[in-house]
C-alpha cells in the first residue's frame, strides 16, 4: 500500500516534470515565449525601433504604394527601408508592408504538418501572416496543400516571398487544420528564426496572397483556433516579465483567454482607436503624464501597442517634455537617454492614461534592464531609459508605440471579437528587476 502510493506519487511527479510546459485550460492555449537578443543589431535597438516606427506610421497602403513606386522605376530610392530590403532580396513589387524588429524579439515554437516539424517563429502584433522557411525550410507532409498562390510580405528589416500552402498547425497540444502558411522561397533579414507568427489584425493580410490587388483576407492562427472551436474567444494575450538575461524564457503567449495566474486585479479594456494609421494595427488612444505634479508629456492621441518594438517611443514634442521633466541627457553610444544615479533617485513615475485607467511605469520600469546593458553597447552600471523619440511631432495618427518595455510591466490582451485592447497589472508591474 505504502509502496503503491509511493510509486503512484513518483509517477505523478514524473509526469508533471515530463509534461510540456504548454498548458491548455478553459479553452485556452498557453505557449512559453522567449526573449532573444540577436547577435547582429543589438547595439542598434533604437535604430531598429525607429525604422519600424517609420514604416508603421506610413500605414499599409502608403507603404505598399511607396514600395511599388520605388521598385517600379527600379531605382535605389532610399525612401524606406522596405524598398531597399525588397531590392536586396530581389522581390517583386506587390505585397503588404509590415515591420519586424530584428534587434530583439520574442519567439514561440509552433508545429506545422503531420508529423509536425517545429519552427521557431517571431511573435508579431504588427503583421498577420504566418510563414516558415527563413532558416529551416518548410517540410511538406501529407497534410500540406499548395494553394498555387504566391505570398509576399515586406517588413522593416526584411522581406519574404514564397508559395502559400494550407497545412495542419500544432499550437501547444492542439491542432488546427487548413491554416494558411507561407513557405518562403526567399527571405531576407530573419537571422536565427524560421519565420513569423503574425497576430496583428486580420486585414493586414489583404494584398499579401495572390497579388497586391487581391482583396482576400487570410485568417490568422488566432482566427482559425477560434473558428474551429479550439479557443472560446478570438483573442490573444501576451505576458512578459522584465528580462534578466539576453535570451530569457520570460514570456507567455495565450490564445483564447488570459492566464489569470499572471495578473493582479482585472483586465481593463479600451476600444481600438479610429485614428489612422494607428487603427490599422492594435491602435489605442492615450495621454502621458509625469510625476506627482502630473506634468503633461503627451496630450491624448493615437498610437499602438506592439510586441515588435523594444522601447517606449513617443512623438518628438513628448520626448522633449520627458527629457526636460527628468533631466536626462542623450548617451552617444546607445542613442538612449541616460541619467546620473542621483537623478535616477529623483526619477518619478510616468503615467499612461488609457481608457480611463492610469498605468504607472515606476522609475525602475523606465530604465533599460541593466543586465542587458552590454548588449546595447552600454556600461553595465549606467542608467539608460526606455523612453525615446519616435522621430516625428504629434499629429501623425501614430504618435507613440508602447513596446515591450511597457508590456513587460502590464499583461496585454488583443481582442478581435470586441475590437479592443486590454491591460492588467502583473507581479512585475512594480518590480525593481531592472
Ligand atoms: C541610397 O543609399 C545608397 C547606399 O547607402 C547610396 O549609395 C545612394 O546614393 C542612396 N540613394 C539615394 C537616392 O539617396
Ligand atoms: C540568443 O539566441 C540567439 C538565437 O538562438 C543567438 O543567436 C544569440 O547568440 C543568443 N544571444 C546570447 C547573448 O546568448
Ligand atoms: C493627470 O492629468 C491627466 C490629463 O492631463 C488626467 O487624465 C489625470 O486624471 C490626471 N491625474 C491626476 C492624478 O491628477
Ligand atoms: C504598484 O504600486 C502602486 C502605487 O505605488 C499601487 O497603487 C499598485 O497597486 C501597485 N501594483 C501592483 C500590481 O502591485
Automatic annotation (TrEMBL):
Record Pfam families: Asp (PF00026)
Keyword Protease listed: yes
Biased composition (Low complexity): 70-82
InterPro entries with a match to the protein in the record: Aspartic_peptidase_A1 (IPR001461), Aspartic_peptidase_AS (IPR001969), Pepsin-like_dom (IPR034164), PEPTIDASE_A1 (IPR033121), Peptidase_aspartic_dom_sf (IPR021109)
Active site: 124, 306
GO biological process terms on file: proteolysis
Residue intervals of the Peptidase A1 domain: 106-424
Region span, Disordered: 58-82
Signal peptide: 1-19
Keywords: Aspartyl protease, Hydrolase, Protease, Signal
CDD domains the record matches: pepsin_like (cd05471)
SUPFAM superfamilies, sorted: Acid proteases
Example GO molecular function: aspartic-type endopeptidase activity
Gene3D superfamilies the record matches: Acid Proteases
Family: Belongs to the peptidase A1 family.
Protein known as: Family A1 protease
Annotated source species: Daedalea quercina L-15889
Amino acid at each position: 500500500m505504502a509502496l503503491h502510493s509511493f510509486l503512484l506519487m513518483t509517477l505523478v511527479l514524473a509526469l508533471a516534470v515530463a509534461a510540456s510546459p504548454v498548458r491548455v485550460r478553459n479553452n485556452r492555449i498557453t505557449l512559453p515565449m522567449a526573449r532573444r537578443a540577436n547577435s547582429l543589431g543589438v547595439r542598434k535597438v533604437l535604430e531598429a525601433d525607429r525604422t519600424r516606427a517609420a514604416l508603421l506610421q506610413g500605414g499599409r497602403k502608403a507603404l505598399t504604394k511607396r514600395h511599388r513606386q520605388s521598385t517600379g522605376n527600379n531605382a535605389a530610392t532610399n525612401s524606406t527601408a522596405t524598398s531597399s530590403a525588397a531590392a536586396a532580396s530581389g522581390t517583386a513589387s506587390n505585397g503588404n508592408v509590415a515591420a519586424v524588429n530584428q534587434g530583439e524579439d520574442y519567439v514561440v515554437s509552433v508545429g506545422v504538418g503531420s508529423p509536425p516539424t517545429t519552427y521557431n517563429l517571431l511573435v508579431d502584433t504588427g503583421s498577420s501572416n504566418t510563414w516558415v522557411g527563413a532558416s529551416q525550410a518548410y517540410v511538406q507532409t501529407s497534410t500540406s496543400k499548395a494553394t498555387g498562390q504566391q505570398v509576399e510580405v515586406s517588413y522593416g528589416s526584411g522581406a519574404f516571398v514564397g508559395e502559400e500552402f494550407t497545412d495542419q498547425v500544432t499550437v501547444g497540444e492542439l491542432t488546427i487544420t487548413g491554416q494558411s502558411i507561407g513557405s518562403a522561397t526567399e527571405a531576407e533579414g530573419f537571422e536565427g528564426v524560421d519565420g513569423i507568427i503574425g497576430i496583428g489584425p486580420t486585414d493586414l493580410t489583404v494584398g499579401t496572397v495572390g497579388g497586391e490587388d487581391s482583396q482576400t483576407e487570410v485568417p490568422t492562427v488566432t482566427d482559425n483556433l477560434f473558428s474551429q472551436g479550439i479557443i472560446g474567444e478570438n483573442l490573444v494575450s501576451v505576458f512578459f516579465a522584465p528580462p534578466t538575461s539576453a535570451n530569457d524564457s520570460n514570456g507567455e503567449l495565450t490564445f483564447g483567454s488570459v492566464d489569470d495566474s499572471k495578473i493582479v486585479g482585472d483586465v481593463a479594456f479600451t476600444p481600438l482607436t479610429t485614428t489612422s494609421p494607428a487603427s490599422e494595427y492594435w491602435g489605442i488612444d492615450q495621454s502621458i503624464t509625469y510625476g506627482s505634479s502630473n506634468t503633461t508629456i503627451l496630450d491624448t492621441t493615437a498610437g499602438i501597442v506592439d510586441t515588435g518594438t523594444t522601447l517606449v517611443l513617443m512623438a518628438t514634442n513628448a520626448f522633449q517634455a520627458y527629457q526636460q521633466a527628468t533631466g536626462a541627457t542623450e548617451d552617444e553610444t546607445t542613442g538612449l537617454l541616460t541619467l546620473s544615479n542621483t537623478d535616477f533617485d529623483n526619477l518619478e513615475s510616468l503615467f499612461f492614461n488609457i481608457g480611463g485607467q492610469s498605468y504607472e511605469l515606476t522609475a525602475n520600469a523606465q530604465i533599460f534592464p541593466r543586465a542587458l546593458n552590454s548588449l546595447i553597447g552600454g556600461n553595465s552600471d549606467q542608467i539608460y531609459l526606455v523612453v525615446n523619440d519616435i522621430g516625428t511631432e504629434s499629429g501623425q495618427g501614430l504618435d507613440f508605440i508602447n513596446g515591450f518595455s511597457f508590456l513587460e510591466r502590464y499583461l496585454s490582451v488583443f481582442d478581435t471579437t470586441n475590437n479592443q485592447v486590454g491591460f492588467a497589472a502583473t507581479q512585475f508591474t512594480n518590480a525593481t528587476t531592472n
